[in-house]
Prior knowledge:
The complex is a heterodimer of chains A (120) and B (354). Chain A has three helices and no strands. Chain A has a single domain, classed as Up-down Bundle (Methane Monooxygenase Hydroxylase, Chain G, domain 1), CATH 1.20.58. The model of chain A has no long low-confidence stretch (mean pLDDT 81). Chain A is flat. With 120 residues, chain A is an all-alpha fold. By secondary structure, chain B is mainly α. Chain B has one domain. Chain B is built from 15 helices and four strands. In chain B, β1 and β2 form a beta hairpin. The longest helix of chain B has 32 residues, at 144-175. Chain B is globular, with a radius of gyration of 21 Å. The model of chain B has no long low-confidence stretch (mean pLDDT 85). Chains A and B meet through α1, α2 and α3 of A and α1, α4, α7, α12 and α15 of B.
Amino acid sequence: MEAFLPVGFLLIFALLLCIGLFTVKRLLGPRNPVAAKLAVYECGVTPEGSARAPFKTAFYLIAVLFLLFDVEAAFFFPWALVYRESLAQGPALLIAMLVYMSLLVLGLVYIFRKDCLKLN
Amino acid sequence: MDAMDLIVTAVKTAIIYIGMVQVVPIMLIVERRGAALIQDRPGPNRVGPFGLFQPIADVIKMMMKEVTIPRQVNKALYLLGPFLVLFPASLVIAALPFGDFFTLFDKNYPIQVANIDVGILYVLAIGSLGIYGILFGGWASNNKFSLIGAMRSSSQIISYEIPLGLAACSAVVWYGSFSLREMVLTQEGTLFGMLPNWGIFYQPLGFLLFFIAAFAETNRLPFDLPESEAELVAGFHTEYGAMDFGTFFMAEYMNMATMSGLMVAMYFGGWHLPWVSDATLLQWLGSRNLLAALQVLTVVVKIAFFMLVFVWVRWTIPRFRFDQLMRLAWKNLIPIGLFNLVATALILYFKGAA
């Protein structure tokens, strides 16, 4: 745990920088709010409809797929750490990884075949 | 750990952090002059000698600008957004190794904010938190451009996180350690007697993946879809002005520096000079602290090189289309990353068996 102590220092410095930036911009900047200045920026055109418009389902799909693949990739990390040392005891870990990897690749092929990544 | 250690650690952390923040003004001028150089125009050359004081003028201007909070925004999240990007960008530098160690009062201190043994995991974990700031800022702006920019940004960053993670995973398999420091330590010496013993010669594919994903993670051209000004005005920071905009900018440059630092540590030998071992250097220089200074200089030069590559690529390669970007990540980079992982494991296996 002691190794993480300096991260605490860094946390404090980063917080100081953020607070500093926030106060400096507050103190130095002039304040002259005009209705036109505070309007939605849409290149001078009057805004049409709400900005909280529905977005494409593809973005949601990507988020879900990311969740799956990132969790799967996260499982590789503990394996990666011990793999080198485990080689002395034969290829057990290599085979385990290949089996797991083939499942992952199967999933990847499935999402390609289903065309989940259609964004255009 | 006594009080002295605490003070030294705090001062060391402060120095490294201030140094990393200095990347921002330096990159402001380097990027603008670099762009000018590539586009064959003079660039900013009026403020101070060769325009070197331009970043100071830029920063002062940004701070003196009016703070506008548009009427339609969700105020709390809008104000929080930029800082939620800057904060993780500041924290990730903790794991970057800048040198072996320096000696002070007969004690050795690593030239690194925190010598964490899960370094690469820490960087991946904290680094990906920045996405929240972009998403909050874009959503809270209540502007169509911002929302689309934030959507694109989040899907891009999460998509490229997978190849980035896979490349890092292959490196972990190769070095057998999560610690960036240990990775650098194993890269000393030469390979076949002529090449420096750097990670890039063992993990060329991994480096390429990491390199490409680094561009996408930092929202740099050719992958700056979140802020592609031709389509989305300024993407997720359309409604931001003054120092809020500057904060996003700072975070971007600091992320670039971190990514460069990671590439240097994992693939380009960290603080090692090619063909010269640390022991020889120590003999020449005679002092441990002089060697430490040289190591820091080496790392800084290597990082500076990658920062220049970032600028160079930005003004050389045109922007991708969004569906091309996604296809590149999912159909090319992820399979290549998986392949690289299997190949690394197999090579290690057969190398060990032989």
